[in-house]
Please model this.
Amino acid sequence: MRTDFSSMTREILNAYDISEATLAKMLGISQPRVHRIKKGDVKDPAFSVGKAINRLYDDRPMVTE
Model:
């Protein structure tokens, strides 16, 4: 399981084109918690959250520019 949750969270938000609030609902956590993970303030989220971030990261659509 990857553990760079900050960059993974930013990539998920970009790839799915969703807000922090939407991602929070998907993960079952608060929007401020998503923001802290994205900023890198939370380096070790709960196992279930980390697992869900990894799943979303692995399943993310490829962003074309």
About this structure: The two ends are 28 Å apart (CA to CA). Residues 5-59 form a domain with the 434 Repressor (Amino-terminal Domain) fold (CATH 1.10.260). The mean pLDDT is 93.
